[in-house]
Design a protein that fits this description.
- 2 copies of one chain form a homodimer.
- Chain A contains 5 helices and 3 strands.
- By secondary structure, chain A is mostly helical.
- In chain A, strands 1-3-2 form a 3-stranded antiparallel β-sheet.
- In chain A, a hairpin with a 5-residue loop joins strand 2 and strand 3 (41-44).
- In chain A, helix 4 packs antiparallel against helix 5 (81-122).
- The longest helix of chain A is centred in the last third of the chain and has 42 residues, at 81-122.
- The first copy, chain A, is elongated and about 75 Å long.
- The relative contact order of chain A is 0.09.
- The A-B interface holds A 53, 56-57, 59-60, 78, 81-82, 84-85, 88-89, 91-92, 95-96, 98-99, 101-103, 105-106, 108-110, 112-113, 116-117, 119-120 and B 53, 56-57, 59-60, 78, 81-82, 84-85, 88-89, 91-92, 95-96, 98-99, 101-103, 105-106, 108-110, 112-113, 116-117, 119-120.
- Chain A binds a DNA duplex through residues 6-8, 17-20, 22-23, 27, 36-41, 58, 63-65.
Amino acid sequence: METAYTPGEVAARFGLSLDTLRYYEREGLLTEVERAPSGHRRYRASDVELLDLVRCLRDTDMPIARLREFAELVREGDRTIPDRLEILTAHDQALTERIAELRQRQEMIQHKIAYYEGVLAEAD
Amino acid sequence: METAYTPGEVAARFGLSLDTLRYYEREGLLTEVERAPSGHRRYRASDVELLDLVRCLRDTDMPIARLREFAELVREGDRTIPDRLEILTAHDQALTERIAELRQRQEMIQHKIAYYEGVLAEAD
DNA sequence: CCTTGACTTGGAGTGCACTCCAGGTACCAA
DNA sequence: TTGGTACCTGGAGTGCACTCCAAGTCAAGG
């Protein structure tokens, strides 16, 4: 008897809507979710764990299509771990670059802020 | 006789398409761009300068609607500098938070990478 | 004069990631 | 028995930021 979570519980835990949760499943981002006799979804620990990673990757702007690829590899079993590693390391790299870009742009914005502050200070 | 730039030059300089350039103008992200007698746009230094900031803000995910607000303030003249400052500092703050979030998520991803590498190392 | 290439316009189309909806089912509490 | 709540389905709709298109204009070169 494994612990299982209702859609409402899972949605609340990850700050997702039920629609988004179902959308992710439709798009193949989760492995097939089990059902209660009523037909209602029952998320198991492994579903929650995968969803946790999926959310993490989405929150860092990995596109749905790429996430689907990743989830397919998960479904294919442990022999796909090298492929999954490749996806994750590529994403890690992209993330490093994105963060560097944001920091650089932020500097320019802070320059502009300092400039405007200078203009205001001068005008008093 | 101020130096002016053709649409092609400006697009190339910022890595934008001509369509995007026109789209930005339509959306009010640029102040009215002058025309040559032929009807072709001639971007002046001040246009390029504003576009530089606009791109910087777009590249850091400021929505078009907010950029339009900002550009409207620019059009209204120097008395709106305090309002512009408010937009920029709010964005700067949001950016700091976004970068922190990305770094945090990246750590989780790196954890997962290390885990997968461990699995592979074990399996030899 | 004719072609080429860079540009013009208004408007339609695209891709992504949701988000909403109508109509129906399951189960619990009063 | 009647609410109420949580969930189900297939499919349509939304918002954003472009992106593309057809048909036309303009200036320069051969």
